[in-house]
Write a structure and sequence with these properties.
- This protein has 7 helices and 10 strands.
- By secondary structure, the protein is α/β, with parallel strands linked by helices.
- A hairpin with a 2-residue loop joins β4 and β5.
- α3 runs parallel beside α5.
- Bound molecules: adenosine-5'-diphosphate and magnesium ion.
- The site of magnesium ion has 2 residues, from α1.
- Magnesium ion binds next to α1.
Length: 235
């Protein structure tokens, strides 16, 4: 069995706009291993968000297949995909996407509540908050938190159900550079010490250096792939 957490096998995705067909992804294949940190870069329009959407099981490819922990996803129903997303995937967004009326703690717990795992998540939420340095902030609303603290809350929320894979779309895009570096350090530390697996879309070459591997997209295909100095994964 392959040790990939997620595999994309020859995936293609097209969008039709009037008489024009856009090939957002074009026969792309990719494996992400357990405890690997992968950055995806590339010019605007190269397919980064489309790739993250497909790997996040938020949309389906027109051709090719995606396997999550060895399980084929193309034959699953919408409900089954929803459960798989909820239980196996954690999402981190550029704009944090916290619910303003809920406290940090309530935001973090939300995916666990939805999954009916409140009990086990209680302990886990405290551990994650400690790890991310927001334990003292749990009773605050997002408006009472700094940008860096908000993104840590969002990371904690992504982790609450112990996902197999964390998908991050420009997670430092709304942070100043030193706060962004702190968030990247935390992701890096989680990968090394907690065995998290992360795929992160970024524009920022410095941010990408925190990953083990940088994949550059161009016109919906992998243009190049490099291993960084961080790389500790044996291939
Ligand atoms: N929902 C959509 N409808 C039509 N075209 C889309 C849609 N999503 C993406 N595209 C097109 O697909 C290509 C890749 O987009 P995207 O994955 O968002 O690139 P990136 O994130 O690298 O900027 C672009 O040409 C974009 O305009
Ligand atoms: Mg994009």
């Amino acid at each position: 069995m392959s040790d990939a957490i997620i595999s994309a096998n020859h995936i293609s995705k097209r969008f039709v706009l009037g008489s024009e067909t856009i090939h957002a992804l074009n026969d792309l294949s990719l494996d992400i291993k357990r405890s690997e940190f992968v950055a995806v870069m590339g010019p605007s329009g190269s397919g980064k968000s489309t790739l993250l959407h497909l790997l996040g099981l938020l949309d389906t490819p027109d051709e090719g297949s995606i396997e999550l922990e060895g399980q084929a996803t193309q034959t699953l129903t919408d409900d089954e995909l929803t459960y798989l997303r909820r239980d196996k995937l954690g999402f981190i967004f550029q704009t944090f996407e916290l619910i303003p009326t809920l406290t940090a703690k309530e935001n973090i717990m939300l995916p666990a509540e939805v999954a009916g795992k409140r009990q086990e998540a209680e302990v886990r939420s405290r551990e994650i908050a400690e790890l991310l340095g927001i334990a003292e902030r749990l009773n605050h609303k997002p408006s009472e938190l700094s940008g860096g603290q908000r993104q840590r809350v969002a990371i904690a929320r992504a982790l609450i159900n112990d996902p197999a894979l964390i998908l991050a779309d420009e997670p430092t895009g709304n942070l100043d550079s030193s706060t962004g570096e702190e968030v990247l350090e935390l992701l890096r530390k989680g990968v090394i010490e907690q065995g998290w697996t992360v795929i992160m879309v970024t524009h920022d070459a410095k941010a990408a250096e925190y990953a083990d591997r940088i994949i550059r997209l161009k016109d919906g295909q992998i243009e190049s792939e490099t291993r960084t100095a961080m790389n500790t994964v044996n291939s």
